[in-house]
Amino acid sequence: MDFTGLGRFTAYKVNRPLDKGERDARLKQKQRMSVDPVDELSVIKVNSTYIELVDRWYASKGWSVIFAIMLAVPCLAGVIAFPILLIDGYRDPLVWIGVTLIVAFGCLFLGLAWYGFRLEAFRYTHYPIRLNRKTRQVHAFRPDGNVIEANWDKLFIFAGEGHVPAYGKTHDVRAHVLASDRKTVLDTFTLAYCYMGDKSSVGPVWEYIRRYMEEDEGVEKNWRYSDICMPVDGRREGLHFGIIRVFGQVARWPILQLLGSPIWSVVTLGRWIAMYTSRVPQWPENIETQYRIEPDDPYRRTWKDNVPFTFIEGIWPLICFIVGLMVAAWGLRAAFAGIFAD
Length: 342
Description:
By secondary structure, the protein is of the alpha+beta class. The chain has two domains: about 15-60 and about 125-330, no CATH class; about 65-120. It is about 40% helix and about 15% strand. It is built from ten helices and nine strands. A five-stranded antiparallel sheet has the order 2-3-4-5-6, with helices on one face. A four-stranded antiparallel sheet has the order 1-9-8-7. Helix 2 (about 65-85) packs antiparallel against helix 3, helix 4 (about 200-215) packs across helix 5 and helix 6 crosses helix 8. The chain is globular.
């Protein structure tokens, strides 16, 4: 839902000077914060050499696809149906003017729907970020498939802001690649994001990353903390984990998961469409060689090492998903029955 930095109209502004707000919101690599670290379910894998994280758009993937489909279906129906329904008035110029306007607006909104659909579908399944503790290098996938490369110690990191219509401000941990003058922004990417951009969560997730890169015991502490890694290392996210990830947004309230299941179930289908129409990102070989890890590394953790899900974490979301699909299907059937009743 928060597409800051992803699309053409929300891309980060670069080749510009740092502004005062960014300077005031700076997060310093060497400065510990008095908060407990939280990984926000953003870790793909961790080891003694590097940590790999998901992008800011991963958690909410699926919403744009669903909104696009909801916009496209009535527009497409209107573009096809109105000319047919008004064919009896083909000799009246006003009828043809009306049909032309309807078709034109329908095509415009279809274009907007396609843009929204392509924000998530036919792209990459995710845009990974790697932080190398040993070489002090950071690599991040751009939405266009190119890779940003930067020195950790030279990154200008700050609490960034975005804006979601009808929701308000969102917040993330954002990084600028600066020119040699240390004043000009050359490139920008998000290091970490909390679902729906919760401002109070920026400090904890930043401290999780900072601890790994800066503290002597950072590797061990992060390894022990992150017992759930996202299963997207060289693969697509499976449907079951997609259900868990979508419903996990309200994991603390199982009843709310059930009550909101028609919405979350439909979003899960959108997430599945986005995942299975997109490519799995592959790091270029010249970058991959910088991330060799020791075969006997005691701090290796990937999705294969995930702790088992409890009933509430793994089975309950699946039940809610099935119930939600049934309710959504019933509602859709009732809507169509009402439309075509006469």
